[in-house]
Inverse folding.
């Protein structure tokens, strides 16, 4: 008998014994199989379903302190904070919200004029933020000393190297679409095309590049040729290493 034939015979005998075992004890086998399936599916209970919004948990700004780690909690102690809110945060995000419109609106203005002027203010705001100096009891510090420093982009984001900050402060604004260059913005003949050139063509449930740089969901930004409210909203987003009141 060759090696292949012996292997085939052993496999056949194993399947026969397994079938005989299942036929002899059907109820215990069914219960054991159901238990294994439930045990394997249990982690899926905490997996958010597609379209589920993020969990929002608010903490007061006054007297804020980072949450303790799991080991500091007492077993069985009731708490209102979600399970993922433990330990010191990786970073702190602060947003400066801008809501603007062109007024008065003249009939000779074009649809693109709704957001060309409001978006141009983002460059001035970014410049003021970068030049801001914090003075307190510990001395004088610049934004470079307080913000979260980023290095190389992840491999999947390197195609957006010209749009996302790299080797410096993590500071985001609509101006990133034009590398924070005011002259490049004013020379752009198609602002809408520049903003939407990286938008996905299919249904997207997560945040897009436009949502990230504008700091608000795209439908609330007002940047569209079909907008009727003539109101533009965006944020300047800063990310800090530590919390500072």
């Amino acid at each position: 008998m060759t090696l292949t034939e012996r292997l085939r015979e052993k496999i056949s005998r194993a399947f026969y014994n397994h079938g005989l075992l299942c036929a002899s004890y059907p109820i215990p086998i069914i219960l054991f199989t159901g238990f294994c399936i439930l045990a394997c599916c249990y982690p899926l209970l905490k997996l958010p379903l597609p379209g589920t919004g993020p969990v929002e948990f608010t903490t007061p700004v006054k007297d804020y302190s980072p949450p303790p780690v799991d080991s500091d909690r007492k077993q069985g102690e009731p708490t209102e904070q979600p399970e993922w809110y433990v330990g010191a945060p990786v970073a702190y995000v602060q947003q400066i919200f801008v809501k603007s419109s062109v007024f008065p609106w003249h009939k000779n203005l074009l649809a693109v004029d709704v957001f060309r002027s409001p978006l141009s203010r983002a460059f001035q705001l970014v410049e003021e933020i970068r030049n801001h100096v914090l003075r307190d009891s510990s001395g004088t510090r610049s934004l470079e000393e307080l913000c979260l420093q980023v290095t190389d982009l992840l491999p999947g984001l390197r195609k957006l190297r010209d749009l996302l900050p790299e080797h410096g402060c993590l500071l985001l604004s609509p101006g990133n679409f034009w590398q924070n260059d005011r002259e490049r913005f004013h020379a752009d003949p198609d602002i809408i095309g520049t903003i939407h050139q990286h938008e996905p063509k299919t249904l997207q449930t997560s945040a897009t590049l436009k949502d990230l740089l504008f700091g608000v969901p795209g439908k609330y930004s007002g940047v569209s040729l079909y907008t009727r409210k003539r109101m533009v909203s965006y944020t300047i987003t800063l990310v800090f290493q530590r919390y500072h009141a």
